[in-house]
Amino acid sequence: MHDRSSPHVIGSMAWGSALTADHLFVSSEPTKETFTGAHKVYDLEAQKEAYGFDAKEAGDGIAVDPTGWFIASMQVIFSFWG
After folding, report:
1. Which of 19, 23, 38, 47 is least surrounded by CB atoms within 10 angstroms?
2. Torsion angle of C-alpha atoms 7, 22, 44, 36, degrees rounded to 10
């Protein structure tokens, strides 16, 4: 699920709930001065990546609502602090 040669590490993770109880939501964070990232979902039952999201920014946080229907992700797009 994670390409070890990429300049990213797995950052935020959140377990699914209700409809997505068997899913693990994961966002990557860069290890270098870049604001790119990947956001994927691992299906524990199938034991493989279920799908990804088209957001390409670095992930700083991820949450799943109690119904498992809504996923919120916070990305860093730019920083005011150098």
Report:
1. 47
2. -10
The neighbour count for residue 28, using CB atoms within 10 Å, is 21
Give the separation between CA 12 and CA 72, rounded to whole angstroms: 12
CA 66 – CA 23 distance, rounded (Å)? 13
What's the CA gap between 42 and 27, in Å, rounded? Answer: 11
- In eight-state DSSP terms, residue 15 is E
Whole-prediction pTM: 0.73
Residues 4-20 have pLDDT tens digits of 666 677 788 899 999 89
